[in-house]
Amino acid sequence: MSSLLPHRLERSLSLWLGVLPFFVFALVFLVLPTLHVVIGAFTRPDGSLTLANLSDLMSGTILSALWLSLRISLWTACLGTIGGLLVAGAVIRGGLPPALRDAVMTFSGVASNFAGVPLAFAFIATLGRLGLVTVLARDWFGINLYATGFNLTSFSGLTMAYLYFQIPLMVLIITPAIDGLRGEWRETAESLGASGVQYWRMVALPVLWPSLLGAFALLFANAFGAVATAMALTGSALSILPIILFAQIRGDVLQDPHLGYAIAFAMIALTGGANVIYIWLRLRAERWQK
Amino acid sequence: MNLKRIGSWAIFILAVIYFLLPLVGTLEFSLRARRGVYSLDAYRNVLDDPQFQQTLAYSVILSIATVILGVLIVAPTAFWVRLKMPRLRPVVEFITLLPLVIPPIIIVFGYIRLFNTSSILPLTGSARGTDFLLAAGYATLSLPYMYRAVDTGLRAIEVQTLTEAAQSLGAGWATVLARVILPNIAVAILSGAFLTFAIVIGEYVIAALLNRPAFGPYMVWMGSNRAYEPAALAVIAFGMTWASMGVIQLLARRTRFTKG
Amino acid sequence: MAFIDLTSLGKSFGPTPVVRDFDLALHQGEFVSLLGPSGCGKTTVLRMVAGFETPDSGDIRIEGQSLLRQRASQRQIGMVFQSYALFPNMTVADNVAFGLRVAKLAPAQIDKRVDEMLDMVGLAAMKGRYPYQLSGGQQQRVALARAIAPRPRVLLLDEPLSALDAKIRVALRTEIRTIQRQLGITTLFVTHDQEEALSMSDRIVIMNAGRAEQIGTPEEIYNRPTTRFVAGFIGTLNVIEGQLGTEGGTVLTCAGGRLALPGTFGASPGETLSVAVRPQSLRPAPIDGDGLRGTVRHVEFLGAFTRLHVSCGPNTLLVDCFARDLAANLSVGSQIALTVPPDEVLRLSA
């Protein structure tokens, strides 16, 4: 066989053989399944093309689930961005002992992966009706948390829980950008007569801006795709879009498999779009940091 | 200056409270199973539960399978791309980052429709087939972490030079891989493996939708049926995650030492 | 009264003193270099003047007024860093305008001054570009324009040329000096490159271990180093140690023979002395005559002259001579005698 093939062809064949397992795996278990879902979003059960599935998304339950998901994701991305920036800024540039920085980075690495069932349990044990904080607030301060309108299985409760992985993720993403703010910029600004506030307004924030927006996009995508935390925390009390999709996959509750595809496509479009924004902004930020 | 430090401490302490309270709360809650006194009853109930043992064992075995599958797919490719096909790097990198963009629920949705009993590859038709599909799904989820870990390991050792040096000394491909490259990136691979383990061990969505008896679905089931046991489970799960991360930190430190 | 007065400045980082008892007076319009090896405290002196470090002791005054209570932003001091430190989010024009905007100048005035400054550094055409689109030399020109745009009282340059290619470095040297003269701005320049310091400065301060070893014009520093450190740092000097004697005029008895010294050399007989001799001051002499005797260990042909490495007792002396002064049969292993004109022997204090 090898003697029949021209030498160059044989060489390039053996080159490709080395990466073949990876590409076959990625095709079968990543690309094709995703494509199947995307194509399903644009076809009828008989295989003909349609946009009806997508327009059906704009109906009552699904639209309100989409709206709820968007609100949760935007809100937790927003708070996570601000919270993470504050924490990272305090640890890196706030004059705290350097040992704290290592501790915070290690913790962030772990906590950013906490999304899931145990996180929900932790919040139930802490802020649930019998949780530690709820009980202590009642016994020590006479405050009934649940009488104030707070409810762990509601929007505010879910936001609280999501921040537990959103803030650490932000800390991890934004740390290199804050490290990239060079001391000389601050000193130059100062020697040119600028105050600390002027430095932040005119130099530091504009330089950080693409990184901040990019991180926001990534946090948004991260929250939008999360399912397990919400399910374990609220059951199905709070129907965000992925929970509807989960129920649809499990029991075809929408009685239309192609509507499920459409929901999936909407999710890919949103998280994918957010990621594209993230990558684009990060490249922009890196160009400056050279 | 001083105001800045006070502000920083304030932010830091607030963060510590927010991040520690749920951990303390979970621990405290998990000890409350017996009325009036702290006890380990919840843990005893969990550990004695045959379901717990079975699902955890299942998930551990599955995550080991995932790690092996992931290493087999990622390590040779990363090596080959660095050595012979650097122009493929952006493509491979892009593919390995896709699982961060596409939510897992969508990937598993695709699996269920693509590998159903009436398809060419009816993996969901048998328990073994579904187990394989689950491992493949987890290996897909772990691609970004695994690839980055291995690639970082490879970058640190100058693959090209090492390979050429070994070959000029008469080593064949098998020897190069087994005796030169692998030992040098073993630490990187192990880091990737433990991160994968930490992510996979309590995973819920894929396991639940593929209907396999894994640890994640078991936790959810406990969550809706018991009061204190879920907190004990959360403590156990956190413990496993922290242990994995601890091992990664140790490994990272060890490489630092060997580099001198 | 000098324009700038630094008096007995001291600064420690933790237990290690980096600047000790440092005095310097600069006149209006003067260009003074702080020259020394890395870690000698020169940058710390500069940063104390700028206001980024607070001295532990001593005072910094401009026209008699102490700066110590002023923050960096109030001192009206321009600073240029080795790493350019241009604001990456602003165009060239915006960078130069920064100090003027902060000072709340009228927009028309700002535009005019920015154009003026960019003309001066020859970058008027790059006005709208971003820093990442410029070469290193261009970036440093912008940094210079930015620093002088608000008309500071003092200009501080912290190794501004060190990150640049050799060719651009030389060109920019002249350019900086020209602009400095034109504006008459008092300048303190930090460098570890002696060629830079010698070619640009009105005066040079040689720093070692936090202290000023010698202060003087480039000619003084080069021709009459007063300490062993300065002699070693400036140029290739042979340092010879010996004992002073008076048999037949003042002579220094040292390894390999004796050196004649001018007058009494300001020392008393019997004293142990260090002297410095430039490689080009050592001349090959007849082997049976006076002078230092040694063995040629190595011969380097360097174009215009030839450098001999001659071992003389425990020392190795460098001897630069023109081809016509060399004996034809000179080669590695040859015995050689060396003499020095007495007034070319430099006395060192330590």
UniProtKB/TrEMBL annotation, chain A:
Cited InterPro entries: MetI-like, MetI-like_sf
Any single GO CC term annotated in Swiss-Prot or TrEMBL for this entry: plasma membrane
Cellular compartment(s): Cell membrane
Membrane topology: Multi-pass membrane protein
PROSITE patterns: ABC_TM1 (PS50928)
Family per record: Belongs to the binding-protein-dependent transport system permease family. CysTW subfamily.
Protein name: ABC transporter permease subunit
Organism of provenance: Paragemmobacter straminiformis
Automatic annotation (TrEMBL), chain B:
Annotated GO biological process: transmembrane transport
Pfam families for the chain: BPD_transp_1
Keywords in alphabetical order: Cell inner membrane, Cell membrane, Membrane, Transmembrane, Transmembrane helix, Transport
TM region(s), chain numbering: 7-25, 56-79, 91-112, 132-150, 185-210, 230-252
Keyword Membrane: yes
Record's bilayer topology term: Multi-pass membrane protein
Key word Membrane present: yes
Subcellular location: Cell inner membrane; Cell membrane
Segments forming domain ABC transmembrane type-1: 56-251
Assigned GO CC terms: plasma membrane
Family: Belongs to the binding-protein-dependent transport system permease family.
PANTHER family: INNER MEMBRANE ABC TRANSPORTER PERMEASE PROTEIN YDCV
Name under which the protein is recorded: ABC transporter permease
TrEMBL record, chain C:
Gene Ontology terms: biological process: quaternary ammonium group transport
A single GO cellular-component term on record: ATP-binding cassette (ABC) transporter complex
PROSITE patterns hit by this protein: ABC_TRANSPORTER_1, ABC_TRANSPORTER_2
Pfam families: ABC_tran, TOBE_2
Entries under SUPFAM superfamilies matching the protein: MOP-like (SSF50331), P-loop containing nucleoside triphosphate hydrolases (SSF52540)
Keyword Manganese annotated: no
Name by which UniProt lists this protein: ABC transporter ATP-binding protein
